[in-house]
C-alpha cells in the first residue's frame, strides 16, 4: 500500500488559489499536486488507494470563474502544456479509464487523424465547452469540473501504425509476477485514456465523445470507473483512505524534492527517443482487495500487515501524538523486544531504501463493481503509476512486494497495462505530434 508515499499539493493549506504561473523544480509547471497522494498503496504494489487530500480547485487560467457550475464545477485544468494534464494534478473525485484497439488498416495517417480529433475535443471539453461533434448534452449545465484527458500508447500500437522503429525500449513487456491472475481482455490495448473529473457525468460524457470520435478507427477494448474522495468532503486537508480503511498516500514523491521531474518524466538521450521528452510511462494494474478476509482481521493485525496505525497513519513504534508523516524507524522495538514494524510489513518491504531507491508517482482510484459469483466484493484499486522508466521503477518494487509483502495475501492483480504517454500537446498542435511528425 504504500501508505508511505506522500501527498503534496500546490496549496497545502487548502485555501485560495496557488501561483498559477510559477514553475516547480526541474522546470515543470506546477500542476497542483495536492494529493498526488491519492496515489498510494503501493503498487506494485501493493494495493490501493483511494485517498486524496482535501483541497480547493481554483481556476488555473488566472481569470475569475465563469459559466455554468458552482465553485467546484468551475475549476479548470489547462489541457496544453509541457506535460499532459492528469499526471501531477490532484486526483479528481471520479475517473474513467479505457483502452482502444486500432481497426485493421488504419495505419499512421488514420492514427494522426484520430489524435487530432481527440485533441480538439479534449481542448474544448476541459475548458467547459461543448465538443463540436457528438456532444450528447449530458454535461451541458456543468462547468469543467477539473476535467483532464490523458492519452497513452501501448506497445502494439507501433506495429499497427507503421511506427515500429519508434517504439521506446521502456515498452518492453512487464514480467510475470508471483500471484498474478491477469485477464488480457481487461488490460493492455493500443491507446489508453485516463479521464478525470470532479463530476461523474462530466467524465462519462468526455469518454463517450472520444469513443464516438474513434468510431471506425479504434474500438473500445476495456473500460473501468473509479473514485476518490470528493474535494471538500473533509473538514481540513487530510490524506484519504482506501477501501481497506488505511490512510493511503503518505510518502509519494514530492515536487519540491530534488530529482522529482527526473523520476516521473522522460528526457531525450540514452535509450529514450526524442519524441518522448516531456512524456512519461504509465503502469496500470487492476488490483482486487480481498475485503472479506481483510475485514475479518482485528485492527491490531491489520496495522501489523501495513506497519502503521489505522487511526492516524503514524508508523508503528512512533510515540503517542505522532502523525502519518512522522519518520519511520525500522529499528524500533515493541515492549517484548520484537520489531515494532514486522519484517513483512508493507511499509518495510516497500521502502525505497529496500528497493534501490526505486520511485514512481502513484495516482490511484478505488473501484467497487458489485459482487462476484461467490458473493465477495469485486472492489479494490485502479492503480496508476507514472515514472520515467518502468524497468527501474515499477518492476523491481513489484517483484519484491509479490514475494515478501504481507499485504499481498489480501490482493489479487487481475489486469495490467503499460503505456508510453507523449508530452503535452504543443500550441496549435495535437497529442502525439512529436511521434508522428518528429
Automatic annotation (TrEMBL):
Gene (name only): efeB
Organism: Kitasatospora xanthocidica
Cofactor note as given: Binds 1 heme b (iron(II)-protoporphyrin IX) group non-covalently per subunit.
Gene Ontology CC terms, in alphabetical order: cell envelope; cytosol
Enzyme Commission number(s) of this protein: 1.11.1.-
Bias-annotated ranges (Low complexity): 313-323
Keywords of this entry: Heme, Iron, Lyase, Metal-binding, Oxidoreductase, Peroxidase, Signal
Subcellular location: Cell envelope
Function (record text): Involved in the recovery of exogenous heme iron. Extracts iron from heme while preserving the protoporphyrin ring intact.
Signal peptide annotation: none
Superkingdom of source: Bacteria
Keyword Cytoplasm: no
NCBIfam families: Dyp_perox_fam, tat_substr_1
Name of the protein: Deferrochelatase
Reactions mediated catalytically: heme b + 2 H(+) = protoporphyrin IX + Fe(2+)
Amino acid at each position: 500500500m504504500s501508505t508511505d508515499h506522500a501527498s503534496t499539493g500546490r496549496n497545502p493549506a487548502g485555501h485560495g488559489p496557488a501561483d498559477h504561473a510559477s514553475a516547480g523544480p526541474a522546470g515543470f509547471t506546477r500542476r497542483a499536486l495536492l494529493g498526488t497522494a491519492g496515489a498510494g498503496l503501493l503498487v506494485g504494489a501493493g494495493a490501493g488507494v483511494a485517498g486524496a487530500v482535501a483541497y480547493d480547485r481554483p481556476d488555473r487560467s488566472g481569470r475569475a470563474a465563469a459559466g455554468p457550475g458552482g465553485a467546484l464545477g468551475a475549476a479548470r485544468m489547462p489541457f496544453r502544456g509541457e506535460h499532459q494534464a492528469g499526471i501531477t494534478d490532484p486526483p479528481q473525485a471520479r475517473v474513467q479509464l479505457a483502452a482502444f484497439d486500432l481497426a485493421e488498416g488504419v495505419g499512421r495517417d488514420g492514427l494522426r487523424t484520430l489524435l487530432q480529433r481527440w485533441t480538439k475535443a479534449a481542448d474544448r471539453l476541459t475548458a467547459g465547452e461543448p465538443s463540436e461533434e457528438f456532444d450528447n448534452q449530458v454535461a451541458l449545465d456543468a462547468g469543467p469540473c477539473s476535467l483532464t484527458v490523458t492519452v497513452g500508447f501501448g506497445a502494439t500500437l507501433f506495429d499497427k501504425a507503421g511506427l515500429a522503429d519508434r517504439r521506446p525500449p521502456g515498452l518492453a513487456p512487464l514480467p510475470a509476477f508471483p500471484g498474478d491472475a491477469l485477464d488480457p481482455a481487461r488490460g493492455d490495448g493500443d491507446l489508453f485514456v485516463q479521464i478525470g473529473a470532479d463530476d461523474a457525468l462530466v467524465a462519462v460524457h468526455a469518454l463517450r465523445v472520444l469513443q464516438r470520435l474513434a468510431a471506425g478507427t479504434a474500438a473500445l477494448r476495456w473500460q473501468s470507473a473509479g473514485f476518490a474522495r470528493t474535494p471538500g468532503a473533509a473538514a481540513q486537508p487530510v490524506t484519504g483512505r482506501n477501501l481497506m480503511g488505511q490512510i493511503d498516500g503518505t510518502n509519494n514523491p514530492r515536487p519540491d524534492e530534488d530529482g522529482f521531474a527526473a523520476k516521473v518524466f522522460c528526457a531525450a538521450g540514452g535509450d529514450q527517443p526524442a519524441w518522448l521528452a516531456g512524456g512519461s510511462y504509465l503502469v496500470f494494474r487492476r488490483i482486487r482487495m480481498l475485503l472479506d478476509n481483510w475485514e475479518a482481521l482485528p485492527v491490531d493485525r491489520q496495522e501489523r500487515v501495513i506497519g502503521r496505525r489505522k487511526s492516524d497513519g503514524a508508523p508503528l513504534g512512533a510515540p503517542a501524538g505522532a502523525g502519518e508523516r512522522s519518520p519511520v524507524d525500522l529499528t524500533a522495538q515493541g515492549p517484548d523486544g520484537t520489531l515494532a514494524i514486522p519484517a513483512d510489513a508493507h511499509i518495510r518491504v516497500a521502502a525505497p531504501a529496500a528497493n534501490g531507491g526505486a520511485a514512481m508517482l502513484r495516482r490511484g482510484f478505488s473501484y467497487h463493481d458489485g459482487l462476484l459469483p461467490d458473493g465477495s466484493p469485486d472492489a479494490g484499486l485502479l492503480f496508476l503509476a507514472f515514472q520515467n522508466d518502468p524497468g527501474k521503477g515499477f518492476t523491481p518494487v513489484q517483484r519484491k512486494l509479490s514475494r515478501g509483502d504481507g499485504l499481498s495475501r489480501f490482493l489479487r492483480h487481475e489486469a495490467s497495462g503499460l503505456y508510453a504517454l507523449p508530452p503535452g500537446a504543443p500550441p496549435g498542435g495535437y497529442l502525439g505530434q512529436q511521434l508522428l511528425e518528429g
